[in-house]
């Protein structure tokens, strides 16, 4: 962090510390426990991120890394919160979890009344449940298609605009590289394990084919339709051809591992993989670029699942004032700027997309705005507390289809019946 940036960060932290003191923070230093999923260099980056706050307040933060799988994270969070666990002060939460965990988090509406308006309104809205702001955004996410510039040029292949074009390009490059002796080379890697990440991938396939959003904003179950069937059939055709059979067990890090060692032509992944792929230890440094995810063709549009992470304060915390102070710091402009510079995370504060330091150090971030503008939310808002079950049933149906356990038509018909039963009279 530059001296100038650090000075501004400390002023921001000091302001948060003064606020916390005003509402009764004890002078005695405390230790705040923060739980979060961890991919890439997340743990080390977090230590650097909170250092200015620690120095300004005298408090310390201990990050407890959780499994990379968001499904596993959510399950553990729910167990801790149901038990009233006071050992965890703060939770890093997925954008879809607010409706399900809201009762266990403090309402941050008042303390964040000046900060909240600086964020994208839609993201603040996504973390507001029954009029209570239960989590503050720290960065947003939307996936993109990573591609090897050098290999597209080598084989005379254009950047694909549709999934069909992607499959053809991936096959051409894969065939050529394997013929050249790269037996472990694959055309396309993505996240096919049976977990929340597959819901994200499959939502993109279906939405980009004009097949809706699983459950529409008005609560209508829409997933069983011809476009959705076609999308899943197409994805199933990739397994064992342009994608390895093992993709059915891949999460984000497994896909990145194949990609970053130079063994894939295309990858679907989140922004965090860009910085890591550009590192000195990456076999693809300087050889790749990103673009919006493909469409289903025939005037369909690209779709990227809206992701993003937030910070919530447990109502069971024994240090709520200090935790609130840290939450305000993490959601503030200086912290978000540092995340953007060091990790390539997309800010949720609108003004940072015009920040010259970010544009200079991370020119990909202003470009990612186009991806973000095409983001589609998962149906957590219309399905409310039942979203986790909806998603689980959806990814199971998709995984069965990809694995050859029933056809897309059969699995989506069954899914529709299961969701109808789950919905009952209302979500």
List the helices and strands and how they pair.
Layout: H1 3-22, E1 31-37, H2 42-57, E2 60-66, H3 70-82, E3 90-94, H4 98-101, H5 121-126, E4 128-129, E5 132-133, E6 136-141, E7 144-148, H6 149-154, H7 163-179, E8 186-189, H8 196-208, H9 226-238, H10 252-260, E9 264-269, H11 272-277, E10 288-291, E11 304-305, E12 307-313, H12 320-330, H13 333-343, H14 356-361, H15 364-373, E13 375-376, H16 380-383, H17 387-403, H18 408-423
Parallel strand pairs: 1-2, 1-3, 8-9, 11-13
Antiparallel strand pairs: 3-12, 4-5, 6-12, 7-9, 7-10
Helix pairs in contact: 1-2, 1-12, 2-13, 8-9, 8-17, 9-17, 17-18
Please characterize this protein's 3D structure.
With 427 residues, the chain is α/β, with parallel strands linked by helices. It has two domains: 3-134 and 307-376, D-Maltodextrin-Binding Protein, domain 2; 144-305 and 379-423, D-Maltodextrin-Binding Protein, domain 2, CATH 3.40.190.10. It is built from 18 helices and 13 strands. The protein has helices spanning 3-22, 42-57, 70-82, 98-101, 121-126, 149-154, 163-179, 196-208, 226-238, 252-260, 272-277, 320-330, 333-343, 356-361, 364-373, 380-383, 387-403, 408-423, and strands spanning 31-37, 60-66, 90-94, 128-129, 132-133, 136-141, 144-148, 186-189, 264-269, 288-291, 304-305, 307-313, 375-376. A hairpin with a 2-residue loop joins strand 4 and strand 5 (132-133). Helix 9 packs across helix 17 (387-403). Mean pLDDT is 92; it is low at 1-26.
């Amino acid at each position: 962090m530059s001296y100038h940036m650090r000075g501004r960060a400390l002023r921001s932290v000091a302001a948060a510390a003064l606020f916390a003191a005003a509402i009764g923070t004890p002078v005695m230093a405390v230790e705040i426990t923060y739980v979060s999923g961890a991919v890439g260099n997340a743990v080390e980056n977090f230590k650097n991120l909170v250092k200015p706050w620690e120095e300004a307040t005298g408090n310390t933060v201990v990050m407890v890394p959780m499994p990379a799988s968001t499904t596993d994270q959510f399950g553990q969070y729910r167990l801790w919160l149901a038990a009233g666990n006071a050992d965890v002060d703060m939770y890093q939460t997925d954008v879809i979890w607010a409706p399900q965990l809201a009762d266990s988090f403090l309402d941050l509406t008042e303390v964040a009344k000046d900060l909240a308006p600086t964020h994208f309104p839609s993201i603040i809205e996504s973390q507001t449940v029954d009029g209570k702001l239960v989590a503050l955004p720290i960065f947003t996410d939307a996936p993109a298609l990573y591609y090897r510039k050098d290999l597209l040029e080598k084989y005379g292949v254009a950047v694909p605009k549709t999934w069909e074009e992607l499959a053809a390009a991936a096959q051409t490059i894969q065939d050529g590289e394997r013929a050249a002796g790269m037996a472990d080379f694959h055309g396309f890697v993505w996240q096919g394990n049976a977990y929340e990440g597959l819901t994200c991938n499959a939502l993109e396939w279906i939405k980009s084919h004009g097949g809706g959003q699983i459950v529409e904003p008005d609560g209508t179950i829409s997933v069983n339709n011809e476009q959705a069937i076609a999308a899943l059939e197409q994805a199933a055709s990739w397994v064992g051809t342009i994608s390895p059979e093992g993709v059915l067990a891949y999460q984000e890090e497994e896909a990145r591992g194949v990609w970053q060692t130079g063994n894939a032509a295309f990858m679907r992944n989140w922004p965090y993989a860009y910085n890591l792929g550009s590192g000195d230890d990456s076999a693809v440094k300087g050889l790749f670029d990103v673009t919006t995810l493909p469409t289903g063709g025939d005037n369909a549009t690209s779709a990227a699942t809206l992701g993003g992470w937030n910070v919530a304060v447990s109502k069971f915390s024994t240090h709520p004032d200090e935790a609130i102070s840290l939450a305000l710091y993490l959601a503030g402009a200086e912290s978000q700027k540092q995340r953007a510079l060091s990790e390539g995370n997309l800010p949720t504060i609108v003004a940072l997309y015009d920040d010259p330091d970010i544009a200079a150090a991370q020119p990909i971030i202003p470009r990612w705005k186009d991806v973000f503008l095409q983001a589609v939310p998962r149906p957590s808002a219309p399905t409310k507390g039942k979203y986790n079950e909806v998603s689980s049933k959806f990814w199971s149906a998709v995984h069965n289809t990809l694995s050859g356990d029933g056809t897309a038509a059969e699995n989506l018909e069954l899914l529709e019946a299961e969701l109808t039963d789950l919905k009952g009279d209302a979500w």
